Amino acid sequence: MAELAIRAALTGLLCFAAAEEEVLLAGVAGDSDEGGAERWSARVTIIHNSDFRDEQVQRLLALREGRTPPEFPRVEHGSPELYAGYEARGAHALSASRGTTAALVDELARACDDDLLDPTRHPWLRGRHLWLQIVVRGFWHPTGHVGEYYLRHGLPDRALGLHAQAVATARYLGAPGPALGMAHYSLACTQALTGLIDDSRASLAEAISLNQDLREHAARDPDLESLKARTGS
Known about the structure:
By secondary structure, this protein is an all-alpha fold. The protein has helices at 2-28, 42-64, 80-88, 93-110, 113-117, 130-152, 156-172, 177-193, 197-210, 213-219, 225-231.
């Protein structure tokens, strides 16, 4: 039952992130979707999210076929060359989002319980749970970039609403604590960036209580600098 509950929760989180990408492309960005290396357009945001999701699909496919997954290079988000490459594929953003989401949902359904739940099962997992890796690449990362789009394009209320709804959705789905903590963490960052310092502090405390790994992440996250400034630490 626990395994089924995790699969159901993860499927819901993946679909939530995909729906937010659809909303961004359909009704928010509109025809005047412009950007650059430091301020990504909606289409570029979705292409990047889709590539990141596809890397997880490749990992799961390799696992199912008995192969060691490939290593993927880190992405330099501010690179003009990277942006130009994404922009050249921008016309396919919607189909990329839908295709990689469907593929990830399908591979999640095919993955065996032991692979999802046992972090020691494969050396390349480096002691991390596979199910949480799927959450990162299929939910936390894409919603983070969609929220960032809203912030950088002058839509802070949409960013706050997105992450508040992500928390509510994760809770509704019964997502495991570490995944719910990630949703709280994204909300905390957005609250900090929009000047809601007390709310951000409360959201961050909740995030860390659910996912202790986020404590180290928070210590070096520039999005949370305003919290340190308030306390003088």
